[in-house]
């Protein structure tokens, strides 16, 4: 392989390094703190280890388990966490969510010893039960209620009678045949949950199960009710808020809460992403890297802070830039080598919006002004 070809490959590799470095993501956790437990990302204000979480409510204990996948424990509410989800900057909702395991309530089930409890109490915490959860009851002779501080706010009944079984979707959805589901009334900001199960007909035996879950049990997510008797846990969606009234960054969008004084939920403003709860945590989204995030089509997409712009005349300029810039790049490397210097100085002709910078003990790459005045790769030999 010729010397010039090798130099060309080295230069192209450096350009790729610069590109990947620019596209690197920012950590979700505080500096010098772990942002993962197993394969689960842990975003601040949650944290693992002393000094890595906002307060004790957000402390995560990463505990090893027998199946090699560690368990995330939230000690203050005594629940295991399965995942986290910061507010989506492209969504109307800025709610920050996380998901916990919660036990099911069983009664009269032969495969369960005694009477189990599904109660959850989040009072005093910054957490509350998401209205996206569904109250679910399973069984053939079941009347179930969702209780909140002594009040029954939601309930449904299940039966195994033929009058419901004949319904077209009875075997693939919770419509009353062995299974029923009810949505939670909106805007309640619930922090307490428990379930009550009763028999529709006292003289009939049967297993009754009740629980909250984030899933709508239908279609591919439908679990035959008789199998729920053997289940121990389901997944509940919780939401959380913080006192962030001091937040002033234009990159962060915070939404107040009328139910909790000085309580806010934040997300990165449109055009930014990452973690809004870390100082400087909202970083610009490069919409030009993903054609689904911009509407430039065949026009040139130029990324700017928090947005992008489309340039109609850019394709013609880009062609000239890449062509002449590449020639200048290779010629610069060659000319320095011909002078016998160990330290090479390489200039790349690129516009400001495509700025690159890379340096090492042997190679320096820097911007130069846009120019179409280029020299040939190899000098012409004189006869």
From TrEMBL:
Protein's name according to its UniProt entry: (thale cress) hypothetical protein
Keyword tags: Disulfide bond, Glycoprotein, Kinase, Membrane, Serine/threonine-protein kinase, Signal, Transferase, Transmembrane, Transmembrane helix
UniProt keyword Nucleotide-binding present: no
UniProt organism field: Arabidopsis thaliana
Signal peptide extent: 1-23
InterPro entries found in the cross-reference section: EGF_Ca-bd_CS, NOTCH1_EGF-like, WAK, WAK_GUB
Pfam families attached to this UniProt entry: EGF_CA (PF07645), GUB_WAK_bind (PF13947), WAK (PF08488)
Annotated membrane topology: Single-pass type I membrane protein
Origin: domain of life: Eukaryota
């Amino acid at each position: 392989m010729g010397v010039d070809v090798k130099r060309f490959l080295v230069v192209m590799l450096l350009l790729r390094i610069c590109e990947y470095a620019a596209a690197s993501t920012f950590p979700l956790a505080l500096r010098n703190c772990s942002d993962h437990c197993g394969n689960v990302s842990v975003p601040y204000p949650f944290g693992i280890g002393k000094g890595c979480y906002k307060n004790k409510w957000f402390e995560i204990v990463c505990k090893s388990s027998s199946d090699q996948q560690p368990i995330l424990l939230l000690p203050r509410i005594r629940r295991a966490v399965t995942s986290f989800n910061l507010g989506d900057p492209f969504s109307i909702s800025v709610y920050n969510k996380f998901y916990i395991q919660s036990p099911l309530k069983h009664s009269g089930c032969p495969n369960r010893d005694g009477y189990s409890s599904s109660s959850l109490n989040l009072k005093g915490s910054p957490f509350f039960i998401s209205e996206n959860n569904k109250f679910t009851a399973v069984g053939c002779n079941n009347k179930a209620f969702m209780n909140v501080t002594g009040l029954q706010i939601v309930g449904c009944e299940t039966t195994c009678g033929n009058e419901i079984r004949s319904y077209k979707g009875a075997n693939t959805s919770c419509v009353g045949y062995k299974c029923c589901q009810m949505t939670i009334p909106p805007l309640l900001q619930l922090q307490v949950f428990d379930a009550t199960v009763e028999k529709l007909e006292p003289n009939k035996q049967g297993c009754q199960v009740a629980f909250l879950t984030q899933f709508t049990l239908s279609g591919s997510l439908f679990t035959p009710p008789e199998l729920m008797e053997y289940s121990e846990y389901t997944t509940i969606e919780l939401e959380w808020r913080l006192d962030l009234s001091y937040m002033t960054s234009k990159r962060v969008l915070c939404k107040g809460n009328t139910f909790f004084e000085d309580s806010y939920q934040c997300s990165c403003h449109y055009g930014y992403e990452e973690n809004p709860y870390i100082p400087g945590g909202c970083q610009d989204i490069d919409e030009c890297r993903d054609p689904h995030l911009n509407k430039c089509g065949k026009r040139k997409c130029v990324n700017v802070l928090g947005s992008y712009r489309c340039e109609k005349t850019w394709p013609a300029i880009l062609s000239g830039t890449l062509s002449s810039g590449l020639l200048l790049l290779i010629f610069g490397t060659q000319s320095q080598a011909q002078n016998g210097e160990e330290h090479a100085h390489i200039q790349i002709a690129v516009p400001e919006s495509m700025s690159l910078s890379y340096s090492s003990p042997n190679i320096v790459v820097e911007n130069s002004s846009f120019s179409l005045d280029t020299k040939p790769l190899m000098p012409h030999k004189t006869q």
